[in-house]
Automatic annotation (TrEMBL):
Keywords, sorted A to Z: Membrane, Transmembrane, Transmembrane helix
The protein, known as: MFS transporter
Chain segments annotated as transmembrane: 12-31, 43-60, 69-88, 94-117, 129-150, 156-177, 198-222, 228-246, 258-276, 347-364
Alphabetical list of SUPFAM superfamilies matching this protein: MFS general substrate transporter
Alphabetized InterPro entries for the sequence: MFS_trans_sf (IPR036259)
């Protein structure tokens, strides 16, 4: 049976379980902290510490063993859940929990990305990475419903026990994945993505624009764990509808810029407009539109390394996580400072502008050469 599973096991099966756990059990804990008088600026500061912590781990880690890294990631998630029971002020618990949980969730992606993108078909790069995002969407539909319901219905200790059972199951799946070891030189960590570093930093910041505008901002309107879970599930369900067809068309036309320009401009405008969402229903409507747009856009942004870099080189994905988290750290810190001084309008202008800057940067770097799409359409 073990040999059969090793031959048939797909790395995305592990990814699906991981997303179910993180979206359903780690993300819904935002509500746990909000109900204990934690406000948005404190969450933003905690996320900043989380991004810095994992950046330092990636920077100093010289040896990556696939199984060991997965186990480390899941161990950090378990430790993060145990931190919730420490007799400390809630603000310190939030920072400790976020730093450890954030590190666990991000470290998972280094070996996962290396193994996942080895299986890709060069002619269908965007469809492959859209499937990558679809894994997260499907986990994001089911996970928050289950986690939100549990958090609203049972004591925290039972919620954590269920989380541990899921973690134990996921840990058992790791043995069916291949064992690979990657050695990292500090110089190559920075040089591997030469020509794509600025783009990757900006992409990292854009990853968290969605978290701020949809997940964290929703905490101003939602205070019940199950309602929060239902909202996150609805957002993921809408996202699932929009992603696949765009990827197929873009791969067929081989024209990334043709889609990047309009999607980035519209997404930037919708991001900025969320600042004016003073009612819950207007917020939900704009959040659903934003998620639909970003789920079409995120695979295109992430696909640049698949199209142009050496996706079979493990250093590509290790270096990518370092630069992504550099961008995330800058955005989290910027968001905290602006929120602290009640300059939310400037924050939304900056986040919307990042979407407008991205295609300009891609064009400036000559990542994709503009060609006529008429022959491809015919």
């Amino acid at each position: 049976m073990n040999d059969y599973l090793k031959n048939k096991f797909k790395v995305w099966w592990l990814g699906s379980c991981y997303i179910f756990l993180t979206s359903g059990f780690l993300t819904t804990l935002y509500i746990y902290f909000v109900k204990r008088n934690i406000d948005i600026k404190e969450i933003l500061l905690a996320e900043f510490f989380g991004a810095v912590t994992v950046s330092l781990i990636i920077f100093y880690k010289r040896k990556w063993h696939t199984h060991h890294t997965f186990w480390l990631a899941f161990s950090l998630m378990a430790i993060a859940l145990l931190i919730l029971f420490l007799p400390l002020p809630i603000k310190y618990l939030l920072i400790l929990y976020t730093a450890v949980a954030y590190s666990g969730t991000i470290l998972f992606f280094v070996p996962f990305n290396v193994l996942f993108f080895k299986e890709g078909n060069k002619s269908k790069n965007l469809q492959h990475i859209t499937f990558y995002w679809a894994i997260m969407i499907i986990g994001g539909i089911v996970g928050p419903l289950v986690g939100g319901y549990l958090l609203a219905s049972v004591n925290l200790i039972y919620f954590v026990l269920v989380s541990f059972l899921i973690l134990l199951f996921v840990v058992c799946l790791v043995k069916y994945l291949p064992v690979e070891i990657y050695l990292v030189e500090k110089k190559k960590l920075f040089s591997t993505l030469k020509g794509f570093r600025t783009i990757t930093i900006l992409d990292g910041a854009l990853h968290k624009v969605n978290t701020i505008t949809i997940v964290i901002l929703s905490l101003q309107f939602i205070t019940n764990a199950f309602s929060f879970g239902k909202f996150l599930s609805l957002v993921s369900l809408v996202a699932l509808v929009f992603s696949w067809q765009t990827a197929k068309i873009s791969d067929r036309l081989n024209q990334r810029m043709f889609f990047l320009w309009p999607l980035c401009m519209v997404t930037g405008l919708v991001t900025f407009s969320l600042y004016f969402a003073t009612s819950f229903y207007l917020f939900v409507a704009l959040a659903l539109v934003l998620k639909a747009l970003t789920i079409m856009l995120e695979p295109m942004r992430s696909n640049i390394l698949q199209d142009k870099a050496d996706k079979n080189n493990p250093l590509t994905w290790i270096s990518r996580e370092l630069f992504l988290n550099s961008g995330r750290s800058v955005l989290w810190l910027t968001a905290f400072v602006l929120w602290y001084f009640n300059w939310q309008s400037l924050l939304f202008i900056i986040m919307g502008s990042l979407y407008l800057i991205f295609p300009i940067l891609v064009r400036y770097k000559n990542v994709y050469v503009a060609k006529s799409i008429i022959p491809a359409i015919n």
